[in-house]
Structures are given as structure tokens and as C-alpha cells.
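User: Putative yadA-like protein, Haemophilus haemolyticus M19501:
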Amino acid sequence: MKKNLLKQSVIAVLVGGAVSGSALAQEINTMDNSGAAFTKGIRNSIVASIQGNSQILNGFKKDEKILAVNDSGNLEERNATEDDVNSDPLKGKGVVNSVLENQAGIKANADTIEFLGEITESNINSLKNRVADNEVDIEDLKTNLTTLGESTNTAVSNLGEYIQNVDQDVAELKETVLGNNGLLDTVDSHTDAIADLQNRNDYRDLNTVRNLVNGTETHLQEHIDNEFSDLVDAVGEIEGTVEKNTSRITDIRNKQLLQNTRLSNHSDRIGANEAAIATNKDNITANKTDIEANAANITAHTQRLDHLDNRVNNLNKDLKRGLAAQAALNGLFQPYNVGKLNLTAAVGGYKSQTAVAVGTGYRYNENIATKAGVAFTRGGSATYNVGVNFEW
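Assistant: Predicted structure for Putative yadA-like protein:
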């Protein structure tokens, strides 16, 4: 966004500069060569350039006065149109307002990013808490599933006993119904006996007996019908209860199967987690062993480096002492005269080390001479040399 705004601003300034230059050239070309006319043209061009730059910086709106190039290529002041606003690179806002809007947008984006960061951190903390809660819920679920399995087994066992009792009740009801059928047979036999009484002349009040028998028969039939209706209703209720219990048993079995499947899945996941934990433990143990081995190696290397550092320091001292001794030996003189024996001494040094050398020499003749020298340093060994010189 910054790059686009900067690009548009540069384009706008270049356009303003080009328009100002064109106006200046046009003004100079249209005037004569006199000094006053030339000065007037420059002044007018500068004013036009200032107005154009102000227009670019501050912007403009529809119907406001603006400087524009007409079809003849000259600058003219006219009212801005909608096309002028739309064709402007900054849509008439101006460089200043565009920069201010851009700064406001940057501030808003910064606030948004900060807000998103806070939300993200809050979500991460929430997820961590949810993971911890899920671990607790998993442990609770294991306990609940174990309890549910035990309760389900107990409920299924109790329900089986209840169904057996219902079957026994149904069997007893069937026997009762069969017993009522025997009662019907008894009524039929009584009816036959009544029919026999109708054929006998021993009874004077036949109508009374007939009414009594009819009433008894009607009462018995109503009693039988009521008992049978109650039995049918009871059997229907028992069958409905059996169907409900069967449906409940099916639901319980399905739930038990679902719980078993979930337990199996959880067992698989727990097994996978246990295997992963065991693998991590093995890896941690291996890493611990490697770390201990690396620590031992580092300790050994540290000791070797310390020993090597001491050797380097000693070698540095020996080098300085050796160079100091060589400097001292180089300072010893050789005898010049034939038959003369000389004694000579010299001091030499190199950096912080110094050495003292003593020596002697003897010239046998003009062609042969010998010399020997010894140098000593503080804390170091002696350095010596012996030399023979042949001249001709």
C-alpha cells in the first residue's frame, strides 16, 4: 500500500512539474523577447506551478477551481468535473490526505495485529486447558464405562428374571381361561336340566323357575364376559409390557455394543499412547546415555585442551628463551689476531625473555680460528655453540 501511494504521489508531482514546465515554455514562446515580458512569463509560470503543486498536495473536489491543460496545450483555470476527480491518480484526495489515511490504516492494522495476537494467545491457553480437561474426562469416562457395564449386566439379568415371571403369569391366565370354558360347560348342562324340568309336570310354578334359571344364566354369562374381558385386557397389557421390555432390552444391548466399541477404540488409543510413551521413554533413555557419553567426551577433551594449552604456553616460553639465547650467542666476538685467545660476553633478548652468553676463541693463524659460547636464560636450559673458521 505504501509503495502504491508513493508511486501515485511521484506520478502526481511529475505531472505537476510537466504541466508547470509546459506552461513556462508556452508563456515564453508566446511573448516577445523583451525583458519585462520574459519576467512576466516566468512569474506567471511560477504562480501556475505553485497552484498546481498545491492542487496535487491538498487535492480537489468536484466544482472546485483547478488548473488543467486544455485541448490547445495551455493551462486554464476551470471547475473540476467528476471525470477530473476519477482520472486523478489519488481520486482528488491529494498527497497529504492520502498519506494521513495511509498512516491511519497502518495504525489500524497494527492494532488489529496486536488484537489478533492477544486472541491467539488466549485461544492457545484455552486449548491447553481443554486438553487437560479432556484428559480428566477420559479418566472419568473409563470409570463410568466400567460402572455402566456392571449396571447393564445387572439390569439384563433382572430383566430376564422378570420376563420369566411374566411367562408364568401368562400360563396361569391361560389355565384360568380354560377353567372358565369348563364353567360354560356347566352352564350348558344346567340349561339342559332346565329343559328337562320344562317337560315335567311336578312343578306348579314353572314360570318362576324359568325366570330364575334365565336370571341365573344371564348373571353367569355377564360374569363370564366380564372375567374374560378382564383377562383379555390383562393379557394385552402383559404383551405390551413384554414388547416394551423387549425394545428396552434391544436398546440396552445396542448401547452395550456401542459402549463396547467405544471401549475398544479407547483401549486401542490407550495402547497406542502407551506404546508411544514407551518409545519416548526408550528414546529419552538413549538420549540420556548419549548425553552422558558426550559429557564424558567433553570432559576428556577439556582435559586434553588444558594439557595442550599448557604445552603451547611452555613451547611459547621455550621459543622466546631460545630466540633470546640465539641473540646473545650472536653477540659474541671472534678473535682477530694470530695467537690471541679472547673471552667475550653478550646479552640478548626476545620479547619478555632475556639471555646471557659467554664464550672464548683462539686464532691459530691467519687462515684458521675457533670459538665456543654458552647462553643461559632464566628458567630455561643452556644453549651453546662451537664454531671453526677457515679463511684464505
